[in-house]
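Dear colleagues,

For the upcoming journal club I promised to circulate an example of a predicted protein-ligand complex. I picked one with zinc ion because it came up in last month's discussion. The inputs are reproduced below in full, followed by the predicted structure.
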Amino acid sequence: MGIYVNQVGYLPGNEKIAISTFPCNFQVICAEGQRCVLDGAASEAKDAPSAGEKVYHIDFSGVTAPGSYYILAGNGERSHTFQIGDNVYTDLKKALIKALYYQRCGCELTGEYAGIYTHKACHTAPSIFLEDYLSKKADPETFDMTGGWHDAGDFGRYTSPAAVAVAHLLYAYEFFPESLQMELNIPESGNGIPDILNECLYELKWMLKMQAPSGGCYHKLTSFNHADFVMPEDDHAPFLIYPISSMATADFAAVMALASRVYAPFAPDFARDALKASKKAWDWLENNSYMGFHNPPGSNTGEYDDECDLDERLWASAELLRTDKEHSESYLKRLKEYTHMPISKTDFGWTDVSGLATLTILFDPSHSAGELESSYRRILFEEADRLCQIQHNSGYHLAMAPEDFVWGSNMVVCNRSILLILASLLSEGAAAEKYKTAALNQLHYLLGCNALDISYVTGFGENAFKNPHNRPTFADGIELPMPGWVSGGPFKAPCDPAAISAIAPGTAPMKCYVDHVESYSTNEITIYWNSPAVFMTAFFQK
Ligand code: G3I
Ligand code: 9MR
Ligand code: ZN
């Protein structure tokens, strides 16, 4: 039994709906002074199929005065305390980005910037090719592959996830620059470049090392097997350069084109290098067909396997078309071809990046895609309306059907918010409001308006999760995890031992989660689960 709210809070003018699991009369209590500022009755029952229960809506949109509040039911049940205010998501937005700094690999994190979450320089040894490692070659060629962000709770660095994470952040900056000017207290702070771009540059510079002389990009840089649960500087396994994949190459081409645009005013030399690297990757793509990736036998680091590279190629063609005006014709030709392939156009995750193509096509100020634009617009709105419909039927006002609770479901939650934000930006009046509210509902879910009454961002909310599957969190001896991390969240088919033993078979998808440090399938953190949350908060918290 419970009453669930966004534990961080609400902006004054927005719709505010708490979810109760029982019918009730309620009061909204202002925590300072314990005054009741609104009372009423919850709605009639609504089905919540993903949670396997009925729920009741408590609409308290009428409360707009800044302050701390909670909701009290007639039977004495109460919600967590939350805030109403103009800046409720300001600290959250900053922490979601700062979290990436803690993933920096190859350098020391000092107390000056990392507070208590310091670590020594890690993974600084030169790397060798996987094949040389496997054949135990006597004197293998070595490469400096240092830098970048640890992908997740593991120390691997993978090209496609890196590209997607950086893309979410750079697009967020392109859309909402006024919202992303804050300093993050990182080593580069104060150098005249917005810190979000400073942080992304750390990753992008590493990514440039992942391009082979042929123009193709290596799929990943990891040890052969995952490290034990140690601090990164205590992981001394060799980091290996795995083969090229066409997904990695296309994602690289796309994000480097985007980066060359975004960094042009701030770091012109880097912007030039990025465009050059992007075009080189494009040439490789033009000369090579699908090149997939699977781990060799015995290797268990992240696979990020993908049977289809057309969405990645689509995104690369769309980004280069927008950025590199010199070769528009060849990009447009490919963009037309990929557009007609039977692939999604509305996803924003590492497996399917097609939505990033849609985004860049629809918001390209020079409308380089010409007549193709209208079909992308139609597809975007079809998907936005489908998501609104799912929300309407979900009980929790969440655009997630039971089957959508995959590994990393919180990424799907955030990515769908991005799509709804785009629909809002492309609409006017009541339609724009409708999509905006729907996008915001996804954030409410993430921050506590869910069947487990939990905030899926560390350090934000009275009942925020505390035990991410993250090696430093386990090994650093510090009680609380770094703030600002998004958990992967409920997974309908949990598959790690910790989750399997904690979650009874038949549990409803929205409840298939355990806040346990060993649960990699429900409670890991990744760079590309934080990045869409940055996009979302940058839109709502200007
Ligand atoms: O592609 C199928 C889709 O066709 C199907 O409808 C759907 C239904 O479940 O499954 C889809 O595949 C899923 C795939 O992700 C793509 O979403 C797999 O079931 C699912 O197991 C897979 O999970 C991935 C997981 O690695 C295991 O491979 C996560 O997305 C991915 O985020 C995660 O990544 C790991 C890295 O390997 C290592 N670093 C940490 C990171 C986070 O846990
Ligand atoms: O810690 C690893 C996590 O980052 C990955 O997402 C996950 C799936 O690849 O694997 C985790 O590592 C586990 C390994 O796969 C099996 N032995 C236990 C490891 C730590 O729990
Ligand atoms: Zn490292």
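Two points we might discuss: The first strand starts at residue 3 and ends at 4. The mean pLDDT is 98.

See you all on Thursday,
B. R.
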